[in-house]
Amino acid sequence: MAGATAAEGVPQRPDVARRMFRIAGRYALINALIAIPLHLLIRAAGFGGSTATWKHGAVVLAVAAVVVAPIMETFLYFWLPIVVVRKVLGQRSVTPFVAWFACVGPFIYVHYGGDLGRTALTALCTGVVGGSCFYFCFLTAEKNAGISPFWTTALCHTLFNGSLLGAVVLAYALGVWS
Question: What is the pTM of this model?
């Protein structure tokens, strides 16, 4: 029985993790299928110049990108703006658009320049495409009973960043990207 309790009497939530991974994986895949080709086009067109100054090592970059950033950015750029906009505007018809803008705008800004040296165009691509995918992941998870929109969105971000990091490492190892 799907909602039955275990022999020890502990209630079971049988498919929460599977549903979280399904939602997070779907939006991470959508993000990858749109953002990666766009970034490659931007780079091929000569607009993806880098001024990268990252000096903290590959392990720190991996931990920051796959563990720290998804949790911190989900809180700052998705959960917090959505909650604040909904508190201020209530259930007006403009609320979803304002919430999207409140999420994606700062997400674009935080992905501009910095230690990874992103150009305005690459930051715009990362912010609009990635930010939109994470925003809609949050909204989709909200509609599913028993699923945390915060953790599902952080998982989506982790899946995307981890997959991208793996692909970049593989491309460097194979000599495809230098």
Answer: 0.84
Count of CB atoms situated within 10 Å of the CB of 94: 10
Backbone angles phi, psi at 164, to 5 degrees: -65, -45
Contact 171, 68 (CB under 8 A): no
The DSSP annotation for 6-71 comes to: PTTS-B--TTHHHHHHHHHHHHHHHHHHHHHHHHHHHHHTT---------S-HHHHHHIIIIIHHH
Q: pLDDT tens digit string along 38-97?
A: 988 887 887 766 655 556 676 777 788 889 999 999 999 999 999 999 999 999 999 999
CB burial of residue 4 (10 Å; 0-12, 13-18, 19+): exposed
